Amino acid sequence: MKRTFEVTPWNIVTHDFKPEDKRLQESMTSLGNGYMGMRGFFEEDYSGDTLNGIYLGGVWYPDKTRVGWWKNGYPDYFGKVVNAVNFIKMHIKINGEAIDLAKDQFSDFELNLDMKKALLTRSFTVTKGDAKVAVEFVRFLSVAQPELSVQRVRVQNVGSNKVDLVIDSAIDGDVKNEDANYDERFWEVLSTEQGTDSGNVLAETTPNPFGTPRFTSGMEMRNVTDLTADKVAQPSEKEVVNKFTGVLAPNESAQLEKRVIIVTSRDYDTQAAFTDAMHQLSDKVAGQSYDELLEAHEQVWADRWNKSDIVIDGDTEAQQGIRFNLFELFSTYYGEDSRLNIGPKGFTGEKYGGATYWDTEAFAVPVYLGITDPKVTRNLLMYRYKQLDGAYHNAKQQGLKGALFPMVTFDGIECHNEWEITFEEIHRNGDIAFAIYNYTRYTGDTSYVLNEGSKVLTEISRFWADRVHYSQRNKNYMIHGVTGPDEYENNVDNNWYTNILAQWTLKYTLQILKEVSPEQAKKLNVSEDEKKHWQDIVDNMYLPYDKDLNIFVQHDGFLDKDLKPVSEIPADQLPLNQNWSWDKILRSPYIKQGDVLQGIWDFIDDFTPEQKKSNFDFYEQYTVHESSLSPAIYSVLAADLHYEDKAVELYERTARLDLDNYNNDTVDGLHITAMTGGWIAVVQGFAGMRVRDGKLHYAPFLPKKWSHYSFRQVFRDRLIEVDVDQDGSHFKLIDGEPITIDVAGKPVELSK
């Protein structure tokens, strides 16, 4: 655990700059607007360790899979997000010397991410010889005009001597990915154009042998300043630069605004249309002032916060944590583009390749259902439907029928190169099926499940029916050779979570097949023999259980391990994944994240209080929470069991996972999909929100540390406010038709 920022309700702010923590600070001051995003790296020269990262939604590259021993069924390539052309680059010189905080003497440092306004500010005072200047950078990625990046830099002479100032504003196509199997460069610059106060760079991703699309990006900058524009030679065939100069007397200041329009070939059929759009958008924003651009951006964020802010009184750490979670989640995805999804690192780093994982269906869907219009979640479901062809390919690669949705993907084709994930973590198919059910249960909208969703369910069920095998000895269907959600257990037999999801998916699909139209049933073409086989699997699926402990056994052989609780591990050996060999981890009983408990959370109303208690008490003691997705699930279950202190402890871990760097890995980027955990823990945990038979249920409690909390929830065309304080719980209908909810077993009528 390491805290590098101050604790404030709406800001991520520090006045302390330590080079050894720079990557950590870059991750935690990342910005995004759904269309693009960037780490909080410096605009100006910095010669120390840094990860300069800018990423564009849907722009990726199929890097050749690199493995020591090729196995049949491996994907040909590993998809990864491409570090974009650097369009925020600047050089600032004082009396001919470049500012470089890795070398310079400076004071009054402040780095401040304003989450309410989605605005990043950085300021410092630097001394170079007899010159002393105060510098302030401000940047935002507009949510009102998603293609727009805006920067402003102010330089004030706070010394006693005049200062010669030079600001070079640049766009640089000579960038690389830190995550590249063979150290390639992924961009080829097609053209450049450099004026005195404007310029652009067009670049295309390099050719690939896999037939996946190449992407073109265009960045056009226009600079507005009170400095003098000097005509300069273009520095290279990959970079354009505008040079601005001036002389600052003591107390004088100068300012430069840099506006960049970013477009990609994802949105245009031809390069001519692409280039025209870039110029037209540049003209459009040129007609607006900085204040107008910022105000439009802030208004969209204000609307988002009005619908989704969670207010916590009495615990500023908890308040900052949940807002940071929601801020970075919204910065990554707000449903505007149905072609996009939510990568585990979002726009904040290159780890996990920027691809889509099962995190979306399991963790993001419940949150977006509660805070956005249902069409946002429907887009996430359509994302998978549109990639069915890739899922067929993945199943065929493994010699199986039906559809196997990928563990990691951009286009539906599996592009992960670890066998224990690619081949074995097949519970993802069940998670995708469960998301369809979750959407339908929450919204009451059956239009998806009875049409596109029924196709997805049918093809997943065909996969499960082929993947199981029948044990003649035990007279049960089993699933061998899998990895469950707990990735510290590979190639196990009969993972309970995988088996129960397979069983449930087949059962749910059979139910939906009874409800689809005759026309849809004909398209699905599920024979009576198939249905009988699926029902036989449902009736005879093996689900490991130990009657003495009254627990569902995570997988065959788990109880034969050396069962010692996490409390017996020396503190200096945690996290395990950074201190133990993989072999030692696999042989241990230690659980990376909820596995059995993930299933109990999914189907929380289907288990008795005694079952939930015995399983939680048993598995919690062995769980190290070294997956960012883990604490939220345990927090909800702890709250359900009235283990309120444990629920709060685990909420604090999920809400402040990155802010306090719990797992010592935030330097790589934020855990975006895990940032759903704070909302899940508060709404499903502390407020006890459930949907049963189309009705909202709540059973709120107030954590001892808190004096009050409130949130708003979208449900079936209503916006409901939930307010919990020391006097109890209070509910208000903000928008929509009257509704009856259940609070601790009693009906409550809500109307405006």
TrEMBL record:
Domain Glycoside hydrolase family 65 N-terminal as annotated: residue spans: 14-266
Residue span(s) of domain Glycoside hydrolase family 65 C-terminal: 689-750
Binding locations of substrate: 358-359, 592-593
GO biological process terms on file: carbohydrate metabolic process
Keyword Nucleotide-binding: no
One Pfam family per UniProt: Glyco_hydro_65N
Top-tier EC class: transferase
Active-site residue numbers: 487
Assigned keywords, A-Z: Glycosyltransferase, Transferase
Start-end of Polar residues biased regions: 197-209
EC number: 2.4.1.8
Boundaries of every Glycoside hydrolase family 65 central catalytic domain copy: 323-679
MF terms (GO), sorted A to Z: carbohydrate binding; hydrolase activity, hydrolyzing O-glycosyl compounds; maltose phosphorylase activity
Region (Disordered): 197-217
PANTHER family documented for this protein: GLYCOSYL HYDROLASE-RELATED, MALTOSE PHOSPHORYLASE
Family: Belongs to the glycosyl hydrolase 65 family.
Protein name according to UniProt: Maltose phosphorylase
